[in-house]
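thought: user wants a sequence for this fold. calling inverse folding tool.
action: design(structure=
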């Protein structure tokens, strides 16, 4: 049976990664969280003191890109690959609000995007991949056989993120989470290089009022129909 490439794009905190992981596991496809790659580069920039609230030494980051090695290593207990930055597992560190506050600025840098897009295309060269992000269906895999664009209201997305972080024990306020969501929406949608836009052939799904189970059932059904049509 022919395998396909599935691109899942959309706004932050829409549950893209959770859905993509589930879909990849169900189909026995490779799952790639492209956002984790940008977060890992962001973490590197923070570790090297290249970015903070008051500064961003973009040229120094560009010069250091060759020193950044990113890998996904499969965790059999979790059932998906975790991101490693220079041989160190940073899966938990990159999910912090501090990283979230800077990741869109890092993702604006064309040289960063060029490096990561090249890696993403190599990973998905043989099909059988589910990849989520901001520009997967428009830039990374414009010829993907199936594309989804996920959205939800900013208020609901902020509430989901707030619940996720407080459950982990992070001390955050709903107001700062909401601001982060709105700021990232603006930066992601207005950047010059590969802005967040819905591909013309993407299926849009607003999951504001859908449970995780309802959303997955809907997407899985569409996916099976697409795979069937390609193999018929």
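)
observation: tool returned 232 residues.
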């Amino acid at each position: 049976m022919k395998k396909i490439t599935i691109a899942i794009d959309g706004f932050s905190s829409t549950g893209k990664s959770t859905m993509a992981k589930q879909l990849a596991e169900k189909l026995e496809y490779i799952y790639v969280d492209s956002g984790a790659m940008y977060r890992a580069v962001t973490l590197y920039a923070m570790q090297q003191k290249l970015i903070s609230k008051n500064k961003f030494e973009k040229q120094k980051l560009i010069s250091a890109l060759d020193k950044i090695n990113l890998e996904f290593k499969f965790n059999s207990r979790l059932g998906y690959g975790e991101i490693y930055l220079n041989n160190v597992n940073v899966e938990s560190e990159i999910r912090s609000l501090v990283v979230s506050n800077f990741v869109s600025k890092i993702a604006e840098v064309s040289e960063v995007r060029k490096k990561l897009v090249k890696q993403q295309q190599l990973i998905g060269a043989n099909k059988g991949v589910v990849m989520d992000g901001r520009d997967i269906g428009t830039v990374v895999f414009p010829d993907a056989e199936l594309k989804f664009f996920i959205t939800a209201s900013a208020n609901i997305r902020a509430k989901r993120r707030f619940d996720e972080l407080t459950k982990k024990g992070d001390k955050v306020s709903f107001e700062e989470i909401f601001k982060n969501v709105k700021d990232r929406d603006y930066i992601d949608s207005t950047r010059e290089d590969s802005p967040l836009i819905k591909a013309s052939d993407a299926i849009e799904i607003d999951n504001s009022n859908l449970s995780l189970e309802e959303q997955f059932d809907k997407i899985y059904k569409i996916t099976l129909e697409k795979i069937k049509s390609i193999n018929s």
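thought: summarizing for user.
answer: Here is the designed sequence. The longest strand covers residues 5-10.
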